[in-house]
Amino acid sequence: MVRLFEPRTAVQFMPVVAMALVVVLLGVFMAVLNRSEREEEQLTLIKDVLWVEQTLHFQLNSDVEKLQGLADTLGRGDGDPAVHLPALRHVVATNPALEQLLWLDSGGTVVLSVPPGPEGRVVDDAFGPNPRVDAVMMARSLGRPAYSAAYRQMGGGWAFDAVVPVFDGTGMSGILVAVVSLDAFLAHHVPWWIAGRYQVEVVDALGTVLAAKSRVTVPEPRRSHAIPFDPPGGGLALVATIHQIPSNAVRNALLVAIFALTALALFSLWTVRRHIGRRLRAEQALRDEHAFRKAMEDSLTVGMRARDLAGRVTYVNPAFCRMFGWGPDELIGHGPVMPYWPPEDMDKVKAAFDTVMAGQAPPDGFEIRFMRRNGERFDALVYEAPLIDADGRQTGWMASILDITERKREAELARHQQERLQQTARLITMGEMASTLAHELNQPLAAIASYSTGCLNRLRSDASSRDEVIVALEKLAQQARRAGQIIRRVHDFVRKREPNVAPCDIIEVMEDSVALLSPDARKHGVQIEVEAPGGTPPVRADRILIQQVILNLMRNGMEAMAHTPRDRRLLHVSVAVQNGGVLVRVRDSGSGIGPEVEKTLFSPFFTTKTEGMGMGLNICRSIVEHHRGRLWHETPDDGGAVFVFTLPAAEDTP
Questions:
Q1: Does a cis peptide bond (omega within 30 degrees of 0) precede residue 232?
Q2: Cα–Cα dist 387/312, whole Å
Q3: Which of 164, 306, 502, 525 could lock 566 by a disulfide, CB 3.0 to 4.6 Å apart?
């Protein structure tokens, strides 16, 4: 088994390994970069949340300091409380997160409210525990500002109270309560650039969102950070969640391009490898095909010769060299005149060469005589075909040359043997008809003897008349002609001679055959019926050979009726014109031919006769086919057998 690929080495794997390492390193780089970005993003988130928490804590402390200053002012004042109303309004106006500012006395009754709000006592232990009461109680007990837990307002929002105690010269004289809205506090004190990147929320201990800076859809997974929101405390937490992920379109496009180029490189390597594999397989197949063709050409007995369009030899196979005696080095590149052209046939060979170069070589080949290196002449059959290259262009001519010298010698020998066999068959036929022909000759000979004796007796008696002798002599001459005609027909039929193909009248051939066979027919009680229409064209044939076919078929028909009643022994011979040729039909009324005999009817040495050679029908078929006709057998429905043969008309025969 031929191996198409050598064992793979490390060098062959290096491009693939390099590409795989590039892909792995890119993946590691992406993972590290993504992790670094997430860590940096998380760190930035923590820093921003701490900054926001510090900012809000600073703002709340600043607001409480303002409230502390206002509380000091209220504690030093005396007289009408309405005097302090502008100061309260100023504090509310300068701090948008304050929804309401209440000045309560020591008993929890509203002294002033900005904007106007509830009146009477708003802080009382009797009301039960609530965030504001808890904050007031803490501020009283601690003597410093306190913050209430977050609570829901009547309007639906969440707020918390900043409670600042008011002291006069005698002690705590009241309480200053600032209602701070969580939504407003975040909205006014969280900067826009924080809100553009994060969603800032205030949640309670249960995770319920009490206030938010921006309410947008946060992508999943949520990346957030929470820190306690103290003050105001009470379990509140400040949560910042990233809702705007920075765009990495350029980086992603660059990575996609890198991966695409890597994939393209891998695909290119795979394609090149496939191409190399196909090429190696094609080269191996070409080598195998070349070796196969070389072995086939070396085993040929047919000479192969290739010539270019100028007639120069470009290739010869070993059989050609053995046939002519010259080697490839002596023939390749040689142009006309070729060394194997015989001088005596130079004109004929040159004409054949010109015909081939003109593209008019006969498709069924042509015969020509060549010369071997030792001077021996031989007959060759040459087939020429155009030599076409891979692009469909003709580059020359390829010839197949067969040495037919021995074949022609064998054909000539077979022809002579066939002629001798045909003559032998005719002699056998005449031998079988000898007794009948002898009897047929005895009649005219006996009549001649009788007429000659009568004439002599008349002449000797002096009583004869001249007219009687003339009549007797005429009858004698007629019988002599009859006997001579029988002898001539037999002589022409059995003599050895060369075949002579010429136009002949098939009707006359048939009549001679009937005349030869009539005595035998009378002997066997066979009636011969001839159907020969006028206007039958002549055929180009050897008269004696065709007569042999007709005689053989008629004698076979007569012998086939040996067991047929004598009154039904009819041999019908007819001639017809069909498809420009002549058709001869011989029909008997015998027992017919069975299917088991029909298959081997025309085979050599097959016969149903006890003393037959089995060559009659085979010779008949050979003679008919030699005349470019056909011979076959038919089985009619009413019994008997029919043998039919055709011959082309003389004007249609080449």
A1: yes
A2: 13
A3: 525
- pLDDT for residue 320 is more than 60: yes
Which is it for strands 98-105 and 110-114: parallel, antiparallel or unpaired? antiparallel
Strands lying side by side in the sheet with 224-228: 209-212, 198-203, 237-242, 224-228
What does the pLDDT average to over 92-104? Answer: 87
Amino acid present at 13: F
Phi, psi of 196 (to 5 degrees): -70, -20
Q: Specify the 3-state DSSP secondary structure of 396.
A: strand
Residue 247, CA atoms < 13 Å, CB-side half-sphere? 3
Q: Which of 185, 166, 176 has the alpha carbon at shortest distance from 95?
A: 185
Neighbours of 576 (CB within 10 A): 15
Q: Mind listing the pLDDT tens digit for each residue in 476-500?
A: 776 677 667 666 656 655 554 556 7
Q: In angstroms, rounded to a whole number, what is the distance separating the alpha carbons of residues 236 and 531? A: 137
**What H or E segment, with its residue span, contains residue 646?**
strand 641-648
Element (H, E) at 28: helix 10-76
CA distances (Å), origin 94, targets 66, 99, 198, 232:
10, 11, 27, 20
Beta pairing class for 224-228 and 366-371? unpaired
CA 603, CA 446: separation in Å to the nearest integer?
Answer: 44
Q: At a CB cut-off of 8 Å and minimum separation 6, what does 99 contact?
A: 153, 159, 179, 180, 181, 184
What 3-state DSSP class applies to 618? Answer: helix
Q: Which of 422, 571, 438 is nearest to 493 (CA)?
A: 422
- Give the Cα separation of 159 and 211 in Å (integer): 9
SS3 25: helix
CA distance 9 to 587: 88
pLDDT at position 103: 86
Give percent of the chain with pLDDT exceeding 70.
82
- The mean pLDDT of 626-635, rounded to a whole number, is 87
Instruction: Report in angstroms the alpha-carbon separations of 541 from 223, 395, 500, 626.
Output: 115, 47, 8, 9
Q: Which residues contact 576 (CB under 8 A, 6 or more apart)?
A: 533, 582, 583, 585
In sequence order, what DSSP letters do the residues of 285-354 get, joined into one string? HHHHHHHHHHHHHHH-SSEEEEEETTS-EEEE-HHHHHHH---HHHHTT--SSPTTS-GGGHHHHHHHHH
Q: Quick one: pLDDT band at residue 654, thresholds 50, 70, 90?
A: very low
Q: Please give the Cα distance from 540 to 651 (Å, whole number).
A: 8
Q: What DSSP element (H or E) covers 92?
A: helix 85-94
For the range 115-123, what are the long-range contacts, defined as Cβ-Cβ under 8 Å and sequence gap of 24 or more?
Answer: 123/175
Residue 653 has pLDDT above 60, yes or no: no
